Amino acid sequence: VRRYGAFKDFFRRIWIKKLLSKVNFVVCVSSRTRSDVQKISPFQNNIYTILNTPERITSGKNCVKLLYVAGFDYPSKGHASFISRYSEFLKNKSVEVHFVGNCSNFHALSDLKDFCRKFEVSDLVSFHVNVSNSFIDLMYRNVDAFVFPSHYEGFGRPLIEAARYGLPIFSNDVGVFRDLETSGYSKIFPLEQLEDAYGIFAK
What we know:
By secondary structure, the chain is an alpha/beta fold. The protein has helices at residues 6-20, 31-40, 79-93, 106-118, 133-141, 157-164, 177-182, 198-201, and strands at 26-28, 47-49, 65-69, 96-101, 125-129, 145-148, 169-171, 188-190. The radius of gyration is 19 Å and the shape is elongated. Residues 51-60 have low confidence and may be disordered.
């Protein structure tokens, strides 16, 4: 995208490309800026946007989709333990997992992606980082079940959100898990029942 005169734009792109070759991560303000960076440096890895453009989460396959909404900065959120525990289940059933949350520690996010490659589930696990509320709403409306592998929560607001959307919930015993269980919400289960309950949420 040309935003300056041709002469200035030419040297600007050369300088940006040189800078890109010296960094591990690139943080863009929008999807448009990200696209611009990819045009300048097509092989650039680890490009993130502060605010992503909402889009429908279709994979081209008729597969089951799971959602987890939590930040990526803390190991206690359980992303890695979920991947290691359920990687074979995801592969055997072709189940997609969509991790959604805020992130300021992109090294931690990069480690999680490496973890997915280690367990050979990179094609099944998606990371949606620093997205808008409208995108999160879209995710809730387009998945089959909600998982919550966090090891500790003071409250656990995403559990309430998932219940509001009527999703089957598979969660560790944290936050408001027991409150939902005793309140009469019939679609909440311990996380360890995820595999056995596949038929409940698989369409």
